[in-house]
């Protein structure tokens, strides 16, 4: 199986400057390649492909030996492939009738990662294996950068990428042939309902609290963003304030990720089979503002709900749960979430009036009363086991 390992880098001041220069040159390469495609199509109706732009890299590097020529040829090819992937996704959206979203130029705050496609080609993981206390990664044009390796790397390192998050730098290793670590069977099954009041509610009645990291940091973020709005564009004070706001958001992101890892690990350890809702989070968090001619309804309430859903981090949690379940040999089943919160887990009666409030469920047919999220989790488990049985029968 494939797995990623992410570590904090400890670069020197000179290496920080080199990393920033590498990122900037790759950003400019991306933008130049995008401009090349736009101009060729606008002026001559010609579609430029990745192969043609990759072939031009040799001349670009030769004409700019102290700029583009400093960096790994393979990493620059990866940047061009990144642009090519954006165009292929654009044409796929056009073909399927979705909102196209033409690839855009990357500003300084919109390009934060560089990838080296192969370990040993312009980069080398554990480049100083004989060092007694530290781990290093070697990057062409930057040197041997110290890594805060907090856990062992498993499998074979295939690709290496470096990304900037605020003032911090991270290295991410994508590894193949990572051995699975199956957990002992528990013979237990569960359905889970994701919510805002509680992040996870199981069919057994257990609940995982929603820490609401963004809400807890809202006052500090608000103060920081108001201070940012008062700063003059291009000033040193504004750059420092931008870094402060980014650091607060990065902390919230790390807290949310840590909580998701812990909650997912607890579920994987406790249950052999886990059924969850197949949520379309992007659709659920669409704005209700509408247009001037047709304004949305309950815009303020919908905005608050969207913020709470995104703060809970359902998508991050489900992604982590999927990875941990695969590694542990557990079965994860996604079920259609339609009517799971309105259907009685005892008699099967489905009605809008069954759910009285956010937390209370009372069936209008049989009188069954339960916590609304627990009732929904039982329905999710039942649907998941039915899908599993149908798949085994097929």
Automatic annotation (TrEMBL):
Gene Ontology BP, a term: DNA recombination
Domain Cas12f1-like TNB: 314-380
InterPro entries in the cross-refs: Cas12f1-like_TNB, RNA-guided_DNA_endo/Transpos, Transposase, Transposase_put_HTH
NCBIfam families referenced in this protein's UniProt entry, alphabetically: guided_TnpB
Domain Probable transposase IS891/IS1136/IS1341 residue range list: 181-287
Family in the record: In the N-terminal section; belongs to the transposase 2 family.
UniProt domain Transposase putative helix-turn-helix: residue ranges: 1-43
Claim: Ligase is one of the keywords in the record: no
Annotated organism of origin: Nonomuraea glycinis
Recorded GO MF terms: DNA binding; metal ion binding
Pfam families to which the protein is assigned, alphabetical: Cas12f1-like_TNB, HTH_OrfB_IS605, OrfB_IS605
Name the UniProt record assigns to this protein: Transposase
UniProtKB keywords: DNA recombination, DNA-binding, Metal-binding, Transposition, Zinc
The keyword Metal-binding appears for this protein: yes
This protein's encoding gene: ydcM
């Amino acid at each position: 199986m494939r797995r990623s390992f992410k570590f904090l880098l400890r670069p020197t001041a000179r290496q920080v400057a080199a990393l920033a220069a590498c990122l900037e040159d790759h950003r400019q390469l991306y933008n130049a390649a995008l401009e090349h495609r736009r101009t060729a199509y606008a002026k001559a109706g010609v579609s430029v492909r990745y192969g043609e732009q990759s072939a031009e890299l040799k001349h670009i590097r030769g004409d700019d030996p102290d700029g583009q020529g400093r960096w790994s040829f393979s990493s620059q090819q990866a940047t061009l492939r990144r642009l090519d992937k954006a165009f292929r996704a654009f044409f796929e959206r056009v073909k399927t009738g979705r909102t196209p979203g033409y690839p855009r130029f990357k500003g300084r705050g919109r390009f934060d990662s560089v990838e080296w496609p192969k370990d040993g080609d312009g980069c080398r993981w554990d480049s100083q294996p004989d060092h007694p206390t530290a781990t290093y990664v070697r990057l062409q044009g930057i040197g041997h950068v110290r890594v805060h390796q907090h856990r062992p790397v498993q499998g074979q390192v295939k690709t290496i990428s470096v990304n900037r998050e605020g003032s911090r730098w991270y290295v991410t290793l994508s590894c193949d042939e990572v051995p699975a670590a199956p957990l002992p069977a528990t013979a237990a099954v569960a359905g889970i309902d994701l919510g805002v009041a509680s992040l996870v509610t199981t069919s057994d009645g257990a609940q995982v609290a929603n820490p609401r990291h963004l809400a807890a940091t809202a006052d500090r973020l608000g103060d920081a963003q108001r201070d940012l709005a008062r700063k003059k564009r291009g000033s040193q004070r504004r750059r420092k304030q931008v870094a402060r706001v980014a650091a607060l958001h990065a902390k919230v992101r790390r807290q949310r990720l840590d909580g998701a890892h812990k909650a997912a690990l607890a579920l994987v350890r406790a249950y052999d089979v886990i059924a969850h809702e197949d949520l379309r989070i992007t659709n659920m968090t669409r704005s209700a503002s509408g247009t001037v001619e047709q304004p949305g309804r309950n815009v303020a309430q919908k905005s608050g709900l969207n913020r709470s859903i995104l703060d809970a981090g359902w998508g991050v949690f489900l992604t982590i749960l999927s990875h941990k379940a695969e590694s542990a040999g557990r079965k994860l089943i996604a079920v259609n979430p339609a009517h799971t919160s309105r259907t009685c887990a005892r008699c099967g009666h489905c009605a809008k009036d069954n759910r009285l409030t956010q937390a209370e469920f009372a069936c209008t047919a049989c009188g069954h009363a339960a916590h609304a999220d627990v009732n929904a989790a039982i329905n999710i488990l039942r649907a998941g086991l039915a899908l599993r049985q149908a798949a085994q029968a097929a």
